[in-house]
């Protein structure tokens, strides 16, 4: 279920990364069915036999984190009782009376903030997955997406499949194409939740005979090619900043970009740092 949450100025709904597979792609529960539940403020009952699996996984998350630390010989933080919840309020920047937030609570994170850790205890610890479980892709891609939007330099997620006798660790590196694909579907669900899908469509019109630009050559962000190291500009919010940086890295190969909040509303200043 989408959790109604309170923020400072509006009623909001919270889309959690653990259910991105439902909101975006209708896995486990059809999107239309989930939308009806969310709009009614109802929760789909979880069968007791399924809850047992979920409880087992929660209880043994720290076992998986411990195994990850041993294998990678790295320090982890924000796990167990110290888990951190990351939220992007009004992620579509609609500024309506009712808005949609997106959030994630990773099982852990490496001390250098390069790697998120997500633990799965398959089959109540009786067996590991034979291959990478693709059903978790929306969740882990969404986790990287949210933390990067919040300025964390996450490069990858390690999916730790822990059991008492055997553990597998799959590494999934950041994939911007999949992120954009996920963003499109989450945006569609968010607008449907707010009853704004038709209103947003009215803003678009079909255009003919427009030449296809070279990848990354979005006219909106060509300004990046004119920026020298140390130059900066101010953008209106995180989402647009995210779009700008993705395009700028394609337009200027090898470049690096640094962003900081300006203290003026949602506005963010972006510097070319390399």
Average pLDDT taken over every residue: 87
Task: Give the number of helices.
Answer: 8
How many domains, as an integer? 2
Helix amount: 25-40%
Can you give keywords for this protein?
274 residues; alpha+beta; Lambda Exonuclease, Chain A
SSE arrangement:
Blueprint: E1 3-6, E2 11-16, H1 20-25, H2 31-40, H3 48-59, H4 61-72, E3 76-77, E4 86-88, E5 98-104, E6 108-110, E7 115-120, H5 137-149, E8 156-162, E9 167-173, H6 176-194, H7 197-201, E10 232-235, H8 238-251, E11 257-261, E12 268-272
Parallel strand pairs: 2-5, 7-8
Antiparallel strand pairs: 1-2, 3-6, 4-5, 6-7, 8-9, 10-12, 11-12
Q: What does this molecule look like?
A:
The protein has 274 residues and is α+β, with helices and mostly antiparallel strands. The protein has eight helices and twelve strands. It is globular. The model has no long low-confidence stretch (mean pLDDT 87).
Give a quick precis of the structure.
The chain has 274 residues and is of the alpha+beta class. The chain has two domains: 3-193, Lambda Exonuclease, Chain A (Alpha-Beta Complex); 217-274, no CATH class.
